[in-house]
Amino acid sequence: MNRIAALLTLGLLVCAAPVRADWMERTEAIMGTRCYVELWADDPVKGNDAIEAVMAELRRIDNLMSHYKPESQLSQINQYANERPVQVDKELFDLIKLSTHYSEITEGAFDITYASVGYLYDYPRHIHPTEEQIREKLPAVNWHNMLLDEAHHTVRFEHPGMRIDLGGIGKGYAVDRGIDVLKARG
Q1: What is the C-alpha separation between 119 and 32, in angstroms, rounded?
Q2: Residue 116 pLDDT more than 60?
């Protein structure tokens, strides 16, 4: 009987032993780049849930701000803002507005309207525009020609052929949002 009691006690101790914390990670292709999340978790289920929440947030932002996805609000701006004001979510509007602040303080060195020329490049296929194509599109690169209506969250372009791409500022924003997701989960 003592042997059975000892085995039961040992079994209970093993089952009650704390779960060992460990690093968890995942990599996904989102926003045209490799997104990597690594965190320390003492509960694998909570750790995986936290990683999935970050990846879901990155996918949400990509769906809103990708210039590769025709249905994204950023693509809608690029398609229609030369014709009329395009209304967007406050989140996207605020990020576009923030980009104009960086354009102002860098005297135009940072300018999301670079996409007016940038779309001519096809990096994966090593295709670049001719000097003539660049000269033709270059006048559209000027953040001053982007009209932002804060009351209605609309974006309008004053120059034909103008386009925007949030590029690095969009990816930086996504990283900040991912951090917020993790902080909210402790």
Answers
A1: 14
A2: yes
What 3 state SS string does the chain have?
CHHHHHHHHHHHHHHHCCCCCEEEEEEEEECCEEEEEEEEECCHHHHHHHHHHHHHHHHHHHHHHCCCCCCCHHHHHHHHCCCCCEECCHHHHHHHHHHHHHHHHCCCCCCHHHHHHHCCCECCCCECCCHHHHHHHHHHCCHHHEEEECCCCEEEECCCCCCCCCHHHHHHHHHHHHHHHHHHCC
* pLDDT given for residue 10 in this prediction: 38
6: left (phi over 0), alpha (psi -120 to 50) or beta: alpha
Q: How far is CA 5 from CA 2, 9, 13, 17, 18, in A?
A: 5, 6, 12, 18, 22
pLDDT of 140 higher than 70? yes
Phi, psi dihedrals of residue 26, rounded to the nearest 5° = -155, 145
The predicted-structure confidence for 2-23, as pLDDT tens digits, reads as follows 544 333 443 444 445 455 789 9
Q: Are 141 and 113 in contact (CB under 8 A)?
A: yes
Closest CA to 54 of 38, 69, 68: 38
Entry pTM: 0.83
Looking at the DSSP bridge assignments, the partners of residue 36 are 27
